[in-house]
Amino acid sequence: MLIFRYLFKQTIKTQFAVMMVLMLIFISQKFVRILSDAADGHIPGAFVAKILTLNLPDLAILILPISFFIGVLFAHGRLYADSEMSVLFACGYSPNKVLGITAAVGGITLLLSAGNSLFLTPYVNSIEQQVMANIKADSGLSSITPGRFVELSNQAVAFVENITQDGKHLEKVFVAHNPPPNKGRPSVVMATQGNLEDKANGSQWLELDKGTRYEGSLNNLDFRVMRFGHYNVQLKDRNDYQEREKIRSMPTAKLFGSDNLAKIAELQWRIAMPISVIILVLLVVPLGTINPRQGRYAKLFPAIMLYLGYYLLMSAARSSIEDGHLPWYIGIWVVHILMLVIASIFLFLQSEKFLTVKARLKGDRRVSDY
Predict the structure, then answer these.
(1) 191 pairs with which residues across the strands?
(2) Order of strands, edge to edge, in the sheet holding 169-177?
(3) Angstrom distance (rounded) from CA 317 to CA 312
(4) Is the dihedral of CA 326, 329, 332, 336 positive or negative?
(5) Pfam family example for this protein (predicted)?
(6) Are 160 and 179 a contacting pair, CB within 8 Å?
(7) Which residues contact 126 (CB under 8 A, 6 or more apart)?
(8) CA 172, CA 178: separation in Å to the nearest integer?
(9) Which of 1, 4, 23, 2 is nearest to 12 (CA)?
(10) In whole angstroms, what is the distance from residue 131 CA to residue 124 CA?
(11) What is the C-alpha separation between 352 and 97, in angstroms, rounded?
(12) What pTM does this model have?
């Protein structure tokens, strides 16, 4: 029991450290992307932290299996490099018991991965969809910042020199509108002041006072110049942004029994990630076996390449299901079967029976040489 707790603690501690490092890397990359969208005016700055937080469960889908894989690889590599495993085996502690301890850690990772992939991530994605829909609906109000050109939803660009403290009163407003062909002529509106208003039906309008509107195309000489005391520009209709629930935010229970290939692929993907943890247990134990002279990181590169191949094959199978190129009943399961076969071969090559037969063959060759 003492050895079990020691190995269990070493594996868990290393996995947690790897998970924190990977989480920091993935969060940093995601933060840069979100910050870039905020800088371009697509996302208000006040929503950056919220959107980043809502993306954490989605990132954890990939981080949990790979952190377990690399964590066990590092932990076992250190134990072999320091000859601790050799001492355990010499004292009668079999490799199967090491596999059992690794499976216990994998069981915890499996439960976390399944709960995150099947339940938490779809729920958080639905919240993110609502937040993004509100941002799109409110983009006319929240994305306008003083001193910057901002793209609006109706193929218009706005520029406001100053916004007062209440956040809705604008000063020196410029709006350029370039509608699609046969849906109006390009126009430019300049006003000394304006206000942002929410209407009762949910639409949002830019109300301008004391300005001029220029309408016409550069290809024609037919221009109109209108001076106005009050002018309204519709920014967005909130009802146009009530998006349907996307597949990735659908509850897992609603994906069962569907004939839609995209939903089938999404369901198999959610199930595939927890299943991959089971197969990774069988892969990482033989991969973690090293010669102390090789160093603890001797098999890190081939192990990482094997995991990347596993992940990319699952991703390719998912895309093939969505495109109809791969039958759904074969789906991602064929990738699991392939990796299970590879893991079984690795385990067999590390088994006592194979090593005994190998030693006997070497002994027979030495005898024959004499």
Answers:
(1) 173, 211
(2) 149-151, 156-163, 169-177, 187-198, 204-215, 224-236
(3) 8
(4) negative
(5) LptF_LptG
(6) no
(7) 245, 249, 250
(8) 20
(9) 4
(10) 11
(11) 13
(12) 0.71
The stretch 60-88 carries a mean pLDDT of 88
* 88-117 pLDDT tens trace: 888 878 778 888 889 999 999 999 999 999
Say whether pLDDT at 236 is over 60.
no
Q: Distance (Å, rounded) from C-alpha 105 to C-alpha 90?
A: 24
Owner of token pair 């929503």 = 47
Dihedral angle, C-alpha 317, 319, 323, 324, nearest 10 °:
20
pLDDT at 243: 39
User: For residues 331 and 315, is the Cβ–Cβ distance under 8 A?
Assistant: no
- Encoding tokens for residue 218? 């550069």
Q: Say how many Å lie between the first and final Cα of the chain, rounded.
A: 48
Write the CA distances from 160 to 144, 175, 274, integer angstroms.
8, 9, 50
Name the residue with tokens 């932990």: 75
Mean per-residue pLDDT for 204-216?
84
Closest to 113 measured CA to CA, from 18, 31, 105, 317: 105
